[in-house]
């Protein structure tokens, strides 16, 4: 398998965390791929019309996207489910997966806005992104005990990568302030072998 990937993409990191957790990382060849919101990468677009990473190319030529589909596919390759539990626990894992992905989506859009000269930014958008993040962090702080108690699942992977992206691209926000329990949980996430192996600082 080949993965179109970028080391600073939190979605690509989530896929690789999944690969390490499921033991499928050794079957994936990483293709360092540059994409951005203002252009199209022709190589990626041959497989994914949206020209986005991550995009997974299977050995038979099939392309899988987006990260949610890729993660579930990699989990299906394990002898038994690793990150996608069955029964009632599945819905909690998927809820947190959606929350983590939603935070990442908002952060990427927010970063694009922050990169503009100040006079070209849209204040309402900036305020909305800040509000969404603040409410999400407060909710996760309240749920930190449940996060710590539950077996590691895809929701944990998504949230861990979202918070890691905050560290990488929004270190000025000091998100840990007022979120001590969530910060403790995230420290545990970053200490996992799958997180250490996929941290942007560890990748070339």
UniProtKB/TrEMBL annotation:
<feature type="domain" description="GST N-terminal">
    <location>
        <begin position="1"/>
        <end position="82"/>
    </location>
</feature>
<dbReference type="InterPro" id="IPR004045">
    <property type="entry name" value="Glutathione_S-Trfase_N"/>
</dbReference>
<dbReference type="Pfam" id="PF13410">
    <property type="entry name" value="GST_C_2"/>
</dbReference>
<protein>
    <submittedName>
        <fullName>Glutathione S-transferase</fullName>
    </submittedName>
</protein>
<dbReference type="InterPro" id="IPR036282">
    <property type="entry name" value="Glutathione-S-Trfase_C_sf"/>
</dbReference>
<dbReference type="Pfam" id="PF13409">
    <property type="entry name" value="GST_N_2"/>
</dbReference>
<dbReference type="InterPro" id="IPR036249">
    <property type="entry name" value="Thioredoxin-like_sf"/>
</dbReference>
């Amino acid at each position: 398998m080949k993965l179109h990937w970028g080391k600073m993409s939190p979605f690509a990191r989530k896929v690789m965390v999944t690969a390490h957790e499921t033991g499928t990382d050794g079957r994936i060849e990483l293709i360092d791929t540059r994409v951005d919101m203002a252009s199209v990468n022709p190589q990626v677009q041959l497989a994914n019309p949206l020209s986005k990473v991550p995009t997974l190319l299977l050995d038979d030529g099939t392309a899988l996207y987006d990260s949610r589909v890729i993660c579930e596919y990699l989990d299906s390759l394990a002898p038994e489910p690793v990150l996608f539990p069955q029964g009632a626990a599945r819905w909690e894992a998927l809820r947190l997966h959606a929350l983590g992905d939603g935070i990442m989506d908002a952060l990427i859009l927010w970063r694009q806005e922050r990169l503009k000269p100040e006079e070209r930014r849209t204040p309402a958008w900036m305020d909305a992104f800040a509000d969404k993040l603040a409410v999400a962090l407060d909710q996760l702080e309240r749920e930190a005990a449940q996060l710590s108690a539950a077996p590691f699942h895809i929701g944990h992977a998504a949230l861990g990568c979202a918070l890691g992206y905050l560290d990488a691209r929004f270190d000025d926000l000091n998100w840990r302030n007022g979120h001590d329990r969530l910060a403790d949980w995230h420290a545990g996430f970053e200490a996992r072998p799958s997180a250490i192996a996929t941290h942007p600082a560890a990748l070339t």
